[in-house]
Design a protein that fits this description.
It contains 13 helices and 10 strands. The chain has 370 residues and is an alpha/beta fold. The chain has a 5-stranded antiparallel beta sheet, with no helix packed on it. A 5-stranded parallel beta sheet has the order 7-6-8-9-10, sandwiched between helices. It is globular and about 65 Å long.
């Protein structure tokens, strides 16, 4: 059973979102089918009914167009491919959200170097933490994707999520966040969801009614995803007990996963940049604006583990020479840079993060323009 659960864990969250499309038959494409299967290869022909593709490992394959979910270009001969790994903050380097524009990293890279060659591909996702970044790259490598530069922006999830979510559930620190609840939700009864959603739309001014709605919605949520404090029966079989040191394990996983990424990327001639992201709950990391003081410092679930432990992450055991610690990036900034009480940034904050990534790694980006 232990092996089955761990194999399921390895296969978790391998969906990839790419952020650039174009039309050119000389390009390399990601072909994604409706059933979730994916192929990387060249498009040889398209007769309107089916396409013929050429893959490196499987050769030529015919796919009916009715079975295709999406076709996305991932390589052309002139582009400089930048792959982004990490959690939701990393995904915001290319996706829109939290009040900022999309494609910020690509826009600032191309503006800074006065080119149009940089293309950013997003393989980050909300709640992602190591070793999922390592697995994501290996998955893309198996598909044939070859970036020039990999940026891993992480740190917050690697500390906050194991301590605040995995530990109460008895899930190993190495597992994805709240993994036992993900397993529970995969086979749970979702019949209450429709009624619960209607309750959320109900407008009432009566406190007793609001409390009742909250309890009903929460009960449905737990019915679908499981109680956030209920440990699965298999937690003890995974070696989790009262003596498990989640913090030391989480730090070790963060270090080893980054070093494994550095090792495999260096062997392939790919530049690896590791960025340790800022967060508002690290004491002394920012001069807060009134908006931040009032609205963005009140989430103890993540705030406490970050306040107590985020400073304990260190580059000392990391092997990459391209490491940038951004935890105190906003130490002298008085303007509002945060967008919520978790960890996300507004447009100004994201632009500062990206500018720091570019200027501290300028030689790496510039060499690919030659």
């Amino acid at each position: 059973m232990k092996n089955i659960i761990f194999i399921a864990f390895l296969l978790c969250n391998l969906n990839i979102l790419f952020a650039q499309t174009t039309q050119a038959d000389t390009n390399l494409y990601l072909f994604k089918k409706n059933d979730g299967s994916e192929y990387i290869g060249k498009l040889l022909s398209d007769d309107g009914r089916e396409i013929l593709i050429l893959t490196e490992k499987l050769g030529k394959i015919f796919i009916p167009k009715s079975q295709i979910n999406s076709i996305v270009v991932i390589k052309d001969k002139n582009s400089i491919r930048v792959l982004v790994l990490g959690g939701s903050v990393a995904s915001n380097l290319s996706n829109s959200g939290s009040g900022h524009d999309e494609n910020l990293l690509a826009t600032q890279l191309n503006s800074h170097f006065k080119t149009e060659k940089f293309v950013v591909y997003n393989a980050a996702f909300g709640g992602g933490k190591q070793p999922q970044q390592y697995f994501k790259y290996q998955y893309l490598d198996l598909l044939g994707f070859r970036p020039h530069i990999v940026i891993n922006l992480d740190g917050f999830n690697e500390v906050a999520l194991p301590l605040s979510e995995n530990k109460p559930l008895g899930n190993p620190a190495i597992f994805p966040r709240s993994y036992s609840r993900l397993l529970f939700a995969a086979s749970s009864d979702r019949s209450c969801a429709s009624f619960s959603n209607k309750l959320l739309e109900f407008d009432t001014k009566l406190p007793i009614t609001e409390i009742l709605i909250l309890l009903l919605v929460q009960n449905c949520h737990y019915k679908i995803e499981g109680d956030p404090t209920s440990k699965p029966w298999w937690s003890s079989a995974m070696g989790v007990d009262s003596n498990t040191n989640y913090l030391s394990e989480s730090i070790a996983i963060w270090e080893l996963s980054s070093n494994k990424l550095n090792e495999v990327l260096t062997a392939r001639g790919i530049d690896y940049i590791h960025i340790l992201q800022p967060n508002q709950y690290l004491e002394g990391s920012k001069i807060f604006s009134n908006k931040e003081k009032e609205d963005f410092l009140n989430f103890d679930k993540y705030g406490k583990p970050i306040k107590d432990n985020y400073s304990k992450l260190s580059k000392q055991n990391l092997t990459t020479s391209n490491f940038k610690d951004q935890r105190w990036l906003f130490a002298n900034t008085t303007e509002t840079v945060y967008a919520d009480n978790c960890c996300h940034f507004n447009q100004f904050g994201m632009q500062m993060i990206i500018n720091n990534i570019i200027t501290s790694n300028e030689a790496i980006f510039r060499k690919h323009l030659k």
